[in-house]
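Q: What changes when beta-D-fucopyranose is included in the input?
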Amino acid sequence: MTANTNQPNPHSFPPRFTWGVATSSYQIEGAAHEDGRSPSIWDTFCATPGKVLNGDNGDVACDHYHRLDSDLDLIASVGVNAYRFSVAWPRVVPEGRGTPNPAGLDFYSRLVDGLLARGITPWLTLYHWDLPQVLQDAGGWPKRDTALALGDYAAVVTDALGDRVKHWITINEPWVAAFMGYGNGVHAPGHTDLAESFAASHHLLLAHGLALQAIRANVPGAKAGITLNLAAAYPATGSPEDQAAAWRQDGFANRWYLDPVFGRGYPQDMVERLGAASPQAQGLVRGSDLETIGAPTDFLGVNMYSRSVVADAPGEGFLDVRQLRVEGSEYTGFDWEVAPQSLTDLMLRLQRDYNPPALYITENGATYPDTVAEDGTVHDEERTRYFQQHLAALGAAITGGAKMAGYFAWSLMDNFEWAEGYDKRFGIVHVDFETQARTLKASGRWYRDFLARAQEGQPA
Ligand code: FCB
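A: The predicted holo structure follows.
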């Protein structure tokens, strides 16, 4: 672990490395009922008692929709050369399919222009979980039509912004959207059905493939890929049982998405384990689906926060696996283990096993119970240390041969953290949700200074 307790070396990253911060539409925009936006599954979920902590919702969030220009200045003040955001589908195609909403598209057009004017490269995510409620009413992700609708929506967005946006992420974290949305019910729409969740996983992947086709058709010179949430899985002991458990965990969380995206189809061991719940047994994998999903991408985006350590546990869920808390390890406010070495391990494994043309960390960060000091700032040393350790681990991955091309910190600012409402703060900027005041935290100052050194001497 010693390498990761070191400070990251700003000069160990390649020239023109992408340095960014990331956000998503529902988490920051607010203006939930304005300018023709229709409700998303998250509006509905938030309005359902008991689903979101403190009954919080995204009606106002960071009020980013109304504070676009000052937020763009804020992004620029951190010194990043890229900004990852997502487009709200219910804002630009309120009926889910059909007529685009000019006011919705105009917001993103101004966002993109504002970034370009500040010398910041826009990284656009098409789907970061805010499915139009009308499409959920028609069955949502367990239904194939939802994937087709996403393809149409992708055509609308690429048509409108493809002249200026060249970096495209199709889907954010299909595992979370499928499993937490339809399997364990922690996220919208809150269903708890294993078969539905695996049907959803197939259609989210199909949607990725269809979005890719729209991007290729409409955006000359685009760089396109998907963002997966991946966590390296380690066995609790060296026993063959625990090692097999770690492989199953890897199959569920990582390979189920990696294998089809890299053109290999679904991992057979998982298809067998799922039995009747698999998309295959449900008759959902049709014709050329696997070719559509496995079409070449330009990069793989990885959201990395932690790792999993698992033991064999017959009878626990469909995986027969138990997640363990690691004695002596540090944990963040989300109870996620701080495991920077696993970032290095994961990147090297991805490069070796899947050989992506480029790898980006599209999210990495930590939540802690921040307090605002009397001087008005947040002295979030733990978060700073988290970033330092993970950037050092990223440097080690580069040295080891991983084709790392960029890193986005999650998140630009504190925001609506899904089922946890406003309780879990991930920002490098503190947001006072009463006044909407933004204050760069100590971690944000550290990141800014680090980026200044990493980009020294490079053309802006
Ligand atoms: C990821 C999500 C992102 C944020 C972070 C903490 O799973 O993509 O929106 O909630 O976790």
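Observations recorded in class: The longest strand covers residues 121-127.
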